[in-house]
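#structure-requests
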Amino acid sequence: MVLTGAAVAQPVAIGERPGWKIAKTAHSYAELNRRLEDAIKSNKMGLVTSASASEGAKAQGFTIPGNRVVGVSRNDFARRMLAASLAAGIEAPIRLYVTENADGTGTLSYKAPSTVFAPYLTGANADLAKVAAELDDIFARIAAEAGK
């Protein structure tokens, strides 16, 4: 079943948001998901959560554009983040979002870790900013590898 009609809200593109990194790729949605998993592993990070509303909808007989949220973390970063700011722990794992475009290709989006942790810098020790900067570099490499 495809969701259509006036009662269904039309999707709004992710668009530009402060601190977001967004890359439309030439890869299919499924291929981008595979490439993302490989890139996470090659950058020595862990894919620790995964959720897909499109898979859930499919199980109930509905078809919606593909989407998947994956949470990425690594224990050494988690320990440092928590030592710097216990409150920042609510943000872990940091998420990446794979969405399916109308042409079947995939887009990879994520909030830069420095953006995710920015609200917690006041009152945190200086290592939180260092962790965020290190993760910015790692997430940029993950995105570049997945999308190339």
